[in-house]
Amino acid sequence: MDVSFGTVWEAFARELPDATAISDPGRDYSYAEFEERSARLAAALADAGVGPGDKVACYLYNGAAYLETVFAAFKLGAVPVNVNYRYTSEELFALLADADAAAMVFSAELAGNIADVAARLPSLRLLVRAGAGAAVPDIAVPDAVELGELLAAHAPRPPRPRPGSDELFMYTGGTTGKPKGVIWRLSDLMHSMEVSVFQRLGVTTLPGTLDEAVRVAAAARSAGRSPVLMPAVPLMHATGLFNSMGALLAGGRVVT
Protein backbone atom coordinates (compact mmCIF):
# COMPACT_ATOMS: atom_id res chain seq x y z
CA MET A 1 0.00 0.00 0.00
CA ASP A 2 1.91 2.98 -1.30
CA VAL A 3 0.25 5.75 0.70
CA SER A 4 1.12 7.97 3.65
CA PHE A 5 -0.24 7.27 7.13
CA GLY A 6 -1.89 10.67 6.78
CA THR A 7 -3.84 9.53 3.74
CA VAL A 8 -5.07 6.47 5.67
CA TRP A 9 -6.17 8.58 8.65
CA GLU A 10 -7.97 11.03 6.36
CA ALA A 11 -9.92 8.08 4.94
CA PHE A 12 -10.75 6.83 8.44
CA ALA A 13 -12.12 10.27 9.34
CA ARG A 14 -14.56 9.94 6.43
CA GLU A 15 -15.52 6.33 7.21
CA LEU A 16 -15.42 6.41 11.04
CA PRO A 17 -15.99 10.08 11.90
CA ASP A 18 -17.50 9.49 15.34
CA ALA A 19 -15.12 6.75 16.48
CA THR A 20 -12.72 7.87 19.21
CA ALA A 21 -9.15 8.21 17.97
CA ILE A 22 -7.42 9.78 20.99
CA SER A 23 -8.34 10.02 24.66
CA ASP A 24 -6.56 12.74 26.60
CA PRO A 25 -7.27 13.38 30.29
CA GLY A 26 -10.70 14.97 30.36
CA ARG A 27 -11.37 14.84 26.61
CA ASP A 28 -11.87 12.40 23.75
CA TYR A 29 -11.11 13.26 20.12
CA SER A 30 -13.01 11.50 17.36
CA TYR A 31 -11.34 10.63 14.06
CA ALA A 32 -13.22 13.58 12.53
CA GLU A 33 -11.83 15.92 15.21
CA PHE A 34 -8.33 14.45 14.87
CA GLU A 35 -8.54 15.11 11.14
CA GLU A 36 -9.94 18.63 11.44
CA ARG A 37 -7.46 19.84 14.06
CA SER A 38 -4.54 18.35 12.14
CA ALA A 39 -5.84 19.91 8.92
CA ARG A 40 -6.00 23.34 10.56
CA LEU A 41 -2.44 22.93 11.86
CA ALA A 42 -1.32 21.79 8.40
CA ALA A 43 -2.83 24.96 6.92
CA ALA A 44 -0.93 27.07 9.45
CA LEU A 45 2.32 25.27 8.68
CA ALA A 46 1.77 25.76 4.95
CA ASP A 47 1.04 29.47 5.48
CA ALA A 48 4.41 29.72 7.26
CA GLY A 49 6.13 28.24 4.23
CA VAL A 50 6.46 24.66 5.46
CA GLY A 51 6.15 22.15 2.63
CA PRO A 52 7.26 18.75 1.35
CA GLY A 53 10.54 17.59 2.86
CA ASP A 54 10.63 20.31 5.52
CA LYS A 55 11.17 19.15 9.10
CA VAL A 56 8.55 19.69 11.80
CA ALA A 57 9.95 19.19 15.31
CA CYS A 58 7.72 17.60 17.97
CA TYR A 59 9.03 18.86 21.33
CA LEU A 60 6.03 17.60 23.26
CA TYR A 61 4.91 15.48 26.15
CA ASN A 62 2.38 12.70 25.43
CA GLY A 63 -0.97 13.99 24.32
CA ALA A 64 -3.21 14.65 21.35
CA ALA A 65 -1.03 17.57 20.22
CA TYR A 66 1.86 15.22 19.50
CA LEU A 67 -0.17 13.01 17.17
CA GLU A 68 -1.89 16.03 15.61
CA THR A 69 1.51 17.52 14.78
CA VAL A 70 2.65 14.28 13.16
CA PHE A 71 -0.60 14.06 11.17
CA ALA A 72 -0.34 17.71 10.10
CA ALA A 73 3.19 17.16 8.82
CA PHE A 74 2.10 14.06 6.90
CA LYS A 75 -0.64 16.09 5.22
CA LEU A 76 2.01 18.39 3.72
CA GLY A 77 4.60 15.77 2.90
CA ALA A 78 6.68 17.40 5.63
CA VAL A 79 8.82 15.26 7.93
CA PRO A 80 7.98 14.87 11.65
CA VAL A 81 11.06 14.90 13.89
CA ASN A 82 11.03 13.62 17.47
CA VAL A 83 12.74 15.83 20.07
CA ASN A 84 13.72 14.46 23.47
CA TYR A 85 12.20 16.71 26.16
CA ARG A 86 15.03 15.72 28.54
CA TYR A 87 17.73 17.43 26.48
CA THR A 88 19.73 20.35 27.80
CA SER A 89 19.61 23.58 25.81
CA GLU A 90 22.77 22.79 23.87
CA GLU A 91 21.63 19.24 23.09
CA LEU A 92 18.30 20.64 21.91
CA PHE A 93 20.03 23.22 19.73
CA ALA A 94 22.33 20.59 18.19
CA LEU A 95 19.43 18.30 17.26
CA LEU A 96 17.24 21.03 15.77
CA ALA A 97 20.18 22.40 13.81
CA ASP A 98 21.07 18.92 12.54
CA ALA A 99 17.45 18.39 11.44
CA ASP A 100 17.27 21.87 9.89
CA ALA A 101 13.87 22.20 11.56
CA ALA A 102 11.46 24.55 9.78
CA ALA A 103 8.79 24.51 12.52
CA MET A 104 8.42 23.31 16.09
CA VAL A 105 5.40 22.52 18.21
CA PHE A 106 6.30 22.44 21.90
CA SER A 107 4.58 21.78 25.22
CA ALA A 108 4.03 24.97 27.20
CA GLU A 109 5.84 23.42 30.19
CA LEU A 110 9.02 23.29 28.08
CA ALA A 111 8.98 26.95 27.05
CA GLY A 112 11.85 27.84 29.37
CA ASN A 113 14.17 25.49 27.46
CA ILE A 114 13.69 26.98 24.03
CA ALA A 115 13.56 30.79 24.15
CA ASP A 116 17.30 31.15 23.61
CA VAL A 117 17.57 28.08 21.37
CA ALA A 118 14.86 29.24 18.97
CA ALA A 119 16.51 32.63 18.56
CA ARG A 120 19.68 30.91 17.33
CA LEU A 121 17.94 28.83 14.65
CA PRO A 122 17.26 30.89 11.53
CA SER A 123 15.62 27.88 9.84
CA LEU A 124 12.60 28.01 12.19
CA ARG A 125 9.61 29.62 10.45
CA LEU A 126 6.92 28.80 12.99
CA LEU A 127 6.86 28.17 16.75
CA VAL A 128 3.66 26.77 18.26
CA ARG A 129 3.01 26.41 21.99
CA ALA A 130 0.59 23.66 23.08
CA GLY A 131 -1.16 23.34 26.43
CA ALA A 132 -0.86 26.86 27.80
CA GLY A 133 -3.14 27.48 30.78
CA ALA A 134 -3.44 28.69 34.32
CA ALA A 135 -1.46 25.73 35.69
CA VAL A 136 1.51 26.35 33.36
CA PRO A 137 4.08 29.07 34.10
CA ASP A 138 3.85 31.92 31.58
CA ILE A 139 7.33 31.97 30.04
CA ALA A 140 7.60 34.22 27.02
CA VAL A 141 8.92 32.71 23.81
CA PRO A 142 9.25 35.43 21.17
CA ASP A 143 7.09 34.86 18.08
CA ALA A 144 5.47 31.69 19.49
CA VAL A 145 1.76 31.24 18.70
CA GLU A 146 -0.69 29.39 20.93
CA LEU A 147 -1.94 26.18 19.33
CA GLY A 148 -5.60 26.88 20.08
CA GLU A 149 -5.41 30.36 18.57
CA LEU A 150 -3.61 29.05 15.51
CA LEU A 151 -6.23 26.36 14.89
CA ALA A 152 -9.05 28.87 15.26
CA ALA A 153 -7.40 31.24 12.77
CA HIS A 154 -7.01 28.69 9.96
CA ALA A 155 -9.56 26.78 7.93
CA PRO A 156 -8.84 23.05 7.58
CA ARG A 157 -6.57 22.20 4.68
CA PRO A 158 -8.49 19.89 2.31
CA PRO A 159 -7.27 16.27 2.24
CA ARG A 160 -4.76 15.60 -0.52
CA PRO A 161 -3.37 12.08 -1.07
CA ARG A 162 0.31 11.62 -0.21
CA PRO A 163 2.55 8.71 -1.26
CA GLY A 164 4.32 6.16 0.88
CA SER A 165 7.65 7.65 -0.20
CA ASP A 166 7.10 10.50 2.29
CA GLU A 167 9.32 10.28 5.36
CA LEU A 168 9.56 10.44 9.12
CA PHE A 169 12.77 11.14 11.08
CA MET A 170 13.43 9.23 14.29
CA TYR A 171 16.41 10.41 16.30
CA THR A 172 17.72 7.46 18.28
CA GLY A 173 20.52 6.81 20.74
CA GLY A 174 22.28 9.63 22.51
CA THR A 175 23.07 7.42 25.50
CA THR A 176 26.65 6.76 24.42
CA GLY A 177 27.06 9.53 21.86
CA LYS A 178 25.18 12.01 19.72
CA PRO A 179 21.73 10.87 18.54
CA LYS A 180 21.49 9.61 14.98
CA GLY A 181 18.64 10.59 12.69
CA VAL A 182 17.07 7.44 11.20
CA ILE A 183 15.03 8.11 8.06
CA TRP A 184 11.90 6.01 7.63
CA ARG A 185 9.94 5.87 4.38
CA LEU A 186 6.32 5.68 5.47
CA SER A 187 5.59 2.70 3.23
CA ASP A 188 8.47 0.79 4.86
CA LEU A 189 7.26 1.71 8.34
CA MET A 190 3.75 0.58 7.42
CA HIS A 191 5.04 -2.76 6.13
CA SER A 192 6.98 -3.26 9.38
CA MET A 193 3.61 -3.23 11.20
CA GLU A 194 2.09 -6.08 9.21
CA VAL A 195 2.40 -8.60 12.04
CA SER A 196 1.95 -6.33 15.06
CA VAL A 197 -1.12 -4.55 13.66
CA PHE A 198 -2.92 -6.53 10.98
CA GLN A 199 -2.25 -10.15 11.89
CA ARG A 200 -3.69 -9.43 15.33
CA LEU A 201 -6.91 -8.54 13.52
CA GLY A 202 -6.84 -11.80 11.59
CA VAL A 203 -5.59 -10.14 8.39
CA THR A 204 -2.64 -12.17 7.16
CA THR A 205 -1.15 -9.57 4.81
CA LEU A 206 -0.89 -5.81 4.68
CA PRO A 207 -3.91 -4.27 2.89
CA GLY A 208 -3.00 -3.64 -0.73
CA THR A 209 -5.16 -0.56 -1.25
CA LEU A 210 -6.53 2.34 0.74
CA ASP A 211 -10.09 1.06 0.34
CA GLU A 212 -9.04 -2.30 1.74
CA ALA A 213 -7.37 -0.63 4.74
CA VAL A 214 -10.59 1.28 5.43
CA ARG A 215 -12.64 -1.94 5.25
CA VAL A 216 -10.30 -3.68 7.69
CA ALA A 217 -10.47 -0.83 10.20
CA ALA A 218 -14.25 -0.47 9.91
CA ALA A 219 -14.75 -4.21 10.39
CA ALA A 220 -12.46 -4.26 13.44
CA ARG A 221 -14.31 -1.29 14.93
CA SER A 222 -17.70 -2.87 14.28
CA ALA A 223 -16.61 -6.17 15.86
CA GLY A 224 -15.06 -4.47 18.91
CA ARG A 225 -11.59 -5.70 17.94
CA SER A 226 -9.86 -2.42 17.13
CA PRO A 227 -6.89 -1.88 19.46
CA VAL A 228 -6.87 0.46 22.43
CA LEU A 229 -3.32 1.48 23.29
CA MET A 230 -1.94 3.40 26.24
CA PRO A 231 1.68 4.35 25.45
CA ALA A 232 3.34 4.27 28.86
CA VAL A 233 6.59 5.37 27.22
CA PRO A 234 7.06 8.81 25.62
CA LEU A 235 5.75 9.40 22.12
CA MET A 236 9.13 10.99 21.40
CA HIS A 237 10.59 7.46 21.54
CA ALA A 238 10.03 5.07 18.63
CA THR A 239 8.28 2.53 20.87
CA GLY A 240 5.62 5.03 21.94
CA LEU A 241 5.09 6.70 18.57
CA PHE A 242 5.24 3.69 16.28
CA ASN A 243 2.87 1.63 18.43
CA SER A 244 0.46 4.56 18.58
CA MET A 245 0.63 5.00 14.80
CA GLY A 246 -0.03 1.28 14.47
CA ALA A 247 -3.12 1.47 16.65
CA LEU A 248 -4.45 4.35 14.53
CA LEU A 249 -3.57 2.42 11.37
CA ALA A 250 -6.06 -0.21 12.53
CA GLY A 251 -8.80 2.27 13.37
CA GLY A 252 -8.01 2.00 17.07
CA ARG A 253 -7.71 4.45 19.95
CA VAL A 254 -4.67 5.94 21.68
CA VAL A 255 -5.11 6.77 25.38
CA THR A 256 -2.73 9.29 26.92
How many H/I helices? 10
In CATH, what is the class?
Answer: Alpha Beta
Q: How many strand segments?
A: 11
What is the CA-atom radius of gyration, in angstroms? 17 Å
Low-confidence stretches: none
Average residue pLDDT = 94
Order of helices and strands: HEEHEHEHEHEEHEEHHHEHE
Beta-strand percentage range:
15-25%
Helix fraction bin: 25-40%
CATH-defined architecture: 3-Layer(aba) Sandwich
The separation of the N and C termini measures 29 Å
What's the main sheet like?
Answer: 5 strands, parallel
| Biggest sheet, spatial arrangement of strands | 4-3-5-6-7
Tell me the count of domains: 1
Task: Describe the secondary structure blueprint for this structure.
Elements (H helix, E strand, L loop, with lengths): L4 H11 L4 E5 L2 E4 H17 L7 E5 L4 H13 L2 E4 L6 H11 L1 E7 L7 H5 L6 E5 L13 E3 H7 L13 E6 L7 E6 H7 L1 H5 L11 H13 L5 E2 L8 H12 L3 E3 L1
What does this protein look like?
This protein has 256 residues and is of the alpha/beta class. It has a single domain, classed as Rossmann fold, CATH 3.40.50.980. 39% of the residues lie in helices and 20% in strands. The strands form 3 sheets. Strands 4-3-5-6-7 form a 5-stranded parallel β-sheet. Helix 2 packs across helix 6. The two termini are 29 Å apart. The model has no long low-confidence stretch (mean pLDDT 94).
